[in-house]
Amino acid sequence: MSDSRRLLDLSHPIEHDMMTNPWMQKPTISAFLTREQSAAFTTDGVTFQMEVISLPGSTGTYLDSPFQFHVDGPDVSAVPLERLFDVPIVVVRVPDTISIGREPFVAAGELTGAAVLVETGHSRHWGTGAFFQSSPYLTRDAVEYLIEANPAVVGIDSQNIDNGADKTKPAQHNLLGAGILILECMANLADVPDRGARLRVLPTPIREAGSFPVRPVAVVGA
Questions:
Q1: Per-residue pLDDT tens over the stretch 59-78
Q2: Which terminus of the chain has a lower count of CB atoms within 10 Å, N or C?
Q3: DSSP characters for 127-152?
Q4: CA–CA distances in Å: residue 39 to residues 30, 34, 35, 45, 48
């Protein structure tokens, strides 16, 4: 990689017992084998630790696969990697907007095959209860436009790409049904240029998982 390139981490870290959606289990991280126990298997001065991690798939910054809403769709292990690796980024900025319609996506120009990342500024509330309140979401009108535009993936820095009160879940159900992947709870989108950066995500290949934490990276510069 050229020294002129920058890598921007677009994920939130996951910690033991961290705040999550109130109706979800908190993640737990514990030692399966402690450093003290490992001393029985190693030479003096050499120790290691092995962890047991339990968490819902929708923890931290995570990828939604079509399988989450469509039983015959690809799961996290089978999503097309060409939709996630080295994909041109288009950032759509809608600061402090809760209900996001089609207009900012129309104004953004060509979106076909792109990683459309929606920056609302809501990620500033990460780690507080406010992150799960008044969470920005896409309207059905915006979803219909995006399906026509056919980006590779759509990401957002809020808690849910859908309105939590809308039981039809138009963004998740319809985008995933069209094969358009979703990234939620993204971080640091303010640091990504409107165009010119590229997205790289390699999901953990877990079968029969509809969503799972990932670490999206924006590559900026030549």
A1: 999 999 999 999 999 999 99
A2: C
A3: TSGGGGSS--EE-HHHHHHHHHH--S
A4: 18, 9, 7, 8, 8
